């Protein structure tokens, strides 16, 4: 389930409701026992209580599309998928731009990341790295709330002249909760006030022990502005990818997650998806959350039409009947009928959930007025 009431969560952990409410308060969430919280918040609470979370999308279990098992011999190395996180103004966008070397910052209104997407860089060694370009932590957290986890590695950007800040800490917590390894990019090293050692010791107080302090978290000193240290960031990512032994079977129907979506006046529903398993092809029939359709066109991160996308390749797809929510999983199915069946099932579930939420909200209100 993607949501749970506080009471039910306490039940499943065999904890007292008061304790769970207290834990939520510490996280800044005011809740009653009847309150419904999202999966991400619930997971943070569960971790706080020393338990582990296993997420299952019940609708998919019922439909028997929880996925085809791959044989080990069919698995091939795939590119790592990287999300950049960190405090506002510490240089996430600049680093992503420096890494793609095609400047997008200049086009940004007010310095806010408005474009959501993903891109893939190919290194001189022919190795590829996929970057998810998101505003802050949103995509990462909303994706995980909807059951998708696409990130293999988090690059945590910390400005050397500013140090660890609230959103840095939040990013650390999210990465730790998701058990995604981090690479620390100590940015703005070109600035006179840069103090990387202060960053290192501040990270230590938040449980992140970097390599130079005897820990296991790789750290790299960079200047996104001067494009310094970028090769070291990529090296660190590739090393981490090697440790993670990232593999996927390219010879199977595709499965992955929707990274972003929108309605385009001329092209209809457009979704940027990340293929996590299998190869996505033009002509495939895809179910994405409550939407479905035949892939009419596949476009790569440069807007070029392609025929197929191997694992860990971000692509834009055209041809869906509607706009799927960002963060929902997508899967290729055998035929139109199957796609329609799954889509209708999910739409019904969604309506039921919306109704249940309304009832629960009314319950909370009644309690408050009582
Ligand atoms: P974001 O909010 O984390 O995406 O940060 P931005 O990439 O938008 O950067 C915030 C500001 O810091 C901008 O004015 C950048 O030009 C500046 N900046 C980013 N990286 C560096 C760097 O390495 N050195 C210096 N001096 N400034 C940087
Ligand atoms: Mg930004």
Number of helices: 10
Query: What's the pLDDT, averaged over the residues?
Result: 84
How many E-type strands? 19
Largest sheet: spatial strand order: 5-6-4-7-8-9
The assigned structural class equals alpha+beta
Organism: Oecophyllibacter saccharovorans
Protein name: Translation initiation factor IF-2
Family: Belongs to the TRAFAC class translation factor GTPase superfamily. Classic translation factor GTPase family. IF-2 subfamily.
Domain Tr-type G: 77-245
Summarize the structure.
Belongs to the TRAFAC class translation factor GTPase superfamily. Classic translation factor GTPase family. IF-2 subfamily. The chain has 370 residues and is an alpha+beta fold. The protein is 33% helix and 26% strand.
Q: Could you walk me through the main structural features you see in this protein, from its secondary elements to its overall organization?
A:
There is one protein chain. The protein has helices spanning 6-13, 17-26, 39-48, 58-63, 92-100, 138-145, 166-177, 196-205, 230-244, 336-369, and strands at 3-5, 36-38, 76-77, 81-86, 117-122, 128-133, 153-159, 182-187, 218-221, 247-248, 255-264, 268-277, 280-281, 285-288, 291-299, 305-306, 308-309, 314-320, 329-333. It has 370 residues and is an alpha+beta fold. A six-stranded mixed beta sheet has the order 5-6-4-7-8-9. It has a six-stranded antiparallel β-barrel with strand order 11-12-18-15-14-19. Helix 1 (6-13) crosses helix 2 (17-26). 41% of the residues are buried. It binds guanosine-5'-diphosphate and magnesium ion. The site of magnesium ion has 3 residues, from helix 5. One of its GO terms (molecular function) is GTP binding. It is found in: Cytoplasm. Residues 77-245 form the Tr-type G domain. Its main location: cytoplasm.
